[in-house]
Amino acid sequence: MYDIDSRQLLNDMEAGLGNRICDCCEEDLDEQQAIQDIAIAYVRKLSNNYNRQIIRSKGAESDLIDLSQQEVMVKNLGDACPPEMYSRQRMEFLRTSSAYEVHHGYVKPKQFALAALQYEDNLSENHVANAFLSINLLAVGSPMSEEVKRNLVLGVSIASAVLTALTATGVGAVIVLVAGILAPLILWYALRTKRDYLGIIANYSTTNLICRDFTAKQGDLHMHAGKMETFPRTTLDGVTAKEVTIRGVDEGFSDDGDIIDLIYIAQIYASKKAGFFGAEGVFALRPLDKNSPILTSLFASPYKSTPGVYITTGISGSSLKSNWHNMWGKRGSKHTVNSGGISAEISMDASQEKKVFGKLIINEFAPG
């Protein structure tokens, strides 16, 4: 059901887009540009469909989505992948399921539900909200997440909270954030022979986590081979508005009025570049405004060698590069760590052509 032909999916967004991307020589493809092209095509398609519905229903001109503004917002996203907020109860299966099961039971259905919105000719807020709820997604991005939480506190149902938050945030802004999540996901499936890496990070701890200076040479991200195309990044609410990689657990309310945990999931996408190399890297996470503890996570989707993942603690900054080969030699299909206030697990699925999907589950993370 969810095995969508990526070429057709992209061609339906924009005539010829799927052909241009799928037929492009691997060495000539600029993944960052391809992600942006897909995101813009998706935003245009959904925005036009939404505006068509407004015009047909004789809605106010002020309700129309400004397409030029949408494209600017897409470009401003850059390499940032927006966070996704879910009810913890609905996402417990991520912790107990294999990477293969998560890939085929969560990631593919998510792609299908969000991509299929392009086929709603009279797109409305209800269509977007229903697509979210079909995959248990409550919000994308910090502004919508805060609106959902605020509405749950007021006692409205989860479904109403999602719809109300979507409307308050603005359907145009939400479409852009969805595009930021969906575009790299579609590209990963479309490039069938590339050794690219797609991963998710699910934070079940209460600690806000940061990958410091991940764009800097001595920062907490080291790419041994390939390029990090999209990486989680969001901003906390409040006066300071600090940037975090992934937020810790928040609280909300169920339809029965019970307190529920709300968790955040983020997506990363690293691409293979030229030559006989794949997508291989390692990054470190630590509590916001703290130096420790540190969780170090390695992923490898190599050109020839065995793919694998690995996690450990305490390695960050320039030490990521100097410790690369030691960590790389310990890679496997699954690793866990339980030390220094951190409980986490990483596992991988290599069933998708020559690529690797990985899931990093953070169960506990002491704030230090």
Overview in brief:
This protein is of the alpha+beta class.
Features:
5-stranded antiparallel beta sheet; globular; 17 strands; Mutm (Fpg) Protein, Chain: A, domain 2; 368 residues; single chain; alpha+beta; 10-stranded mixed beta sheet; 12 helices
Provide structural commentary.
Strand 15 and strand 16 (about 340-350) form a beta hairpin. The model has no long low-confidence stretch (mean pLDDT about 95). The protein has helices at about 5-15, 15-20, 30-55, 65-75, 95, 100-115, 125-135, 140-155, 160-170, 170-190, 320, 325-330, and strands at about 80, 85, 135-140, 195-205, 210, 220-225, 225-230, 235, 245, 250-255, 260-270, 280-285, 295-300, 310-315, 335-340, 340-350, 355-365. Helix content is about 35%, strand content about 25%. The radius of gyration is 20 Å and the shape is globular. The chain is built from 12 helices and 17 strands. The strands form 3 sheets. Strands 1, 2, 3, 4, 7, 10, 11, 15, 16 and 17 form a 10-stranded mixed beta sheet that branches. Strands 5, 6, 12, 13 and 14 form a 5-stranded antiparallel beta sheet that branches. A two-stranded antiparallel ribbon has the order 8-9. It has one domain (about 5-365): Sandwich (Mutm (Fpg) Protein, Chain: A, domain 2), CATH 2.60.270.20. The longest helix has 26 residues, at about 30-55. It is of the alpha+beta class.
